[in-house]
Amino acid sequence: MLPLLAFEGLCRVCDWGRPALHDDPFVGFQSVRPLFVLSDDGMQYEVPKFRQVYFCAESFPARKPANAYRIFCLGGSTVQGRPFAIETSFTSWLEISLRAAQPEINWDVVNCGGVSYASYRLLPIMQEVLACEPDLIILCTGHNEFLESRTFEHLAARGEVVNHAIAVASRLRTFTLIREQYLRARGQSSDAPREGRPLLPTEVDALLDYRNGLEDYRRDETWRNGVIGQFQYNLAALVRTAQEAGVPILVVNPVSNLRDCPPFKSLHRDDLTAQEQAEWEALCSEADRHLDREHLDRPAAIDCLEQACRIDPQYAATFYRLGHCYLEAHRNDEALQMFERARDLDICPPRILPPMNAAIFEVARDTGTPLFDAQALFESHSRDGIVGDQWLLDHVHPSIDGHQLLADALADKLVEMRIVSPAPDWPEVRQARYQEHLESLPDLYFLKGMQRLEALQRWSQGRGVKLRDGSQK
């Protein structure tokens, strides 16, 4: 093995055989466009107009100042600050906070949050920003993995053992070089997408963007497991790519709304008989009567809903209703279990699932990567320890106060990592700067944010406006 290990080391020193986008065993892209382009005067890198459908306008100096500390934040719309925008995202609050902590450093926090962007769409962005002299990468991803349609038959056909072996081998520069030589010998380009992989469009094509988009979601454990496996692979690849470039990375475990977000779609179990469904419907109706304000009998309603859950342990919405009954009865631990069960059973999961949370902790532990647990942060500041609309505007998007809470905690994490050495008056100065920034935003900014929130709510109900012919209605 020594010659192989020596050659692998040589490849890394000389940067030979770097794994590229086409090495992803799960998906390929029809094309990849840069997120940042050089401005006409050559002074800035900026997000071009054609990419501002999914990203906000953002820029940073082409020539990095000597006293600058540059942080790139990668993720989806929660990073971007939706339903508002970058101006009230945690990235802006973090930059304000860091400048208040150490004004002698030119802190530059660059927002790379893309609407509906999943982990596999962040891989090319990661490779791009690593060439832009970053000092730190903050990665917050996991909510958008189920939004785009793709298949995993090519992985199922190979088998779990072969897939695992290829995933491990693909991390080796030696493997990449051997494969490139093999493809050249066969007259194939190493940049061509691998045969059998689904090709995704250049930009996001979310199922919920279309009218009646919820109808495309069905109970499919094979597909769900494939999505989870793809996320685990992508997360490890993102962290590994940053580490191989010598750039520190901080991974965030994202926050989800459990208390005040019902499941997007519920389906009865496949083998539910007509008699069982009639019993289930009768129990749910009886629970409604017991929850009527004039005839409130919460214990009786709980008993009905518990029976309904036993009849159909796969219908997500019933567990969500039971969770709220438990909460009203001050049975908080049981309420949390029901809310989690409702999330896990959601046929259309727009929130990160527990195996993906586990993957974040596992990758962070195995690679020695610093981790920040946003879910735990929000739980510690929420009523009954269950995250709801106290801090989140919908299923995953924090309010402006929520983004400030996250930014403050991330700044504390950077202090813990010895990246920041704050001045004694940091909290007071930071709060004053926050207020100045908030007051500088026009009323139209907040109005547009609330309009986007209404659109997000319609989107989550499957009321998208796109038609399959490409038009909108």
Task: List the SSEs and their pairings.
Blueprint: H1 2-14, E1 28-29, E2 37-38, E3 44-46, E4 59-61, E5 68-75, H2 77-80, H3 90-101, E6 106-113, H4 119-129, E7 136-140, H5 153-158, H6 160-169, H7 173-185, E8 199-200, H8 221-244, E9 249-253, H9 274-290, H10 298-311, H11 316-328, H12 332-345, H13 354-367, E10 371-373, H14 374-380, H15 400-416, H16 426-440, H17 443-460
Parallel strand pairs: 1-8, 5-6, 5-7, 7-9, 9-10
Antiparallel strand pairs: 2-3, 3-4
Helix pairs in contact: 3-15, 3-16, 4-8, 8-13, 9-10, 10-11, 11-12
Explain what you see.
- This protein is α/β, with parallel strands linked by helices and about 475 residues long.
- The chain folds into 2 domains: about 15-260 and about 350-460, SGNH hydrolase (Rossmann fold, 3-Layer(aba) Sandwich), CATH 3.40.50.1110; about 275-345, Serine Threonine Protein Phosphatase 5, Tetratricopeptide repeat (Alpha Horseshoe).
- It is about 45% helix and about 10% strand.
- It has 17 helices and 10 strands.
- The strands form 3 sheets. The protein has a 5-stranded parallel β-sheet, with helices on both faces. It has a 3-stranded antiparallel β-sheet with strand order 2-3-4, with no helix packed on it. The protein has a two-stranded parallel sheet with strand order 1-8.
- Helix 3 packs across helix 15, helix 3 crosses helix 16 and helix 10 (about 300-310) packs antiparallel against helix 11 (about 315-330).
- It is globular, with a radius of gyration of 24 Å.
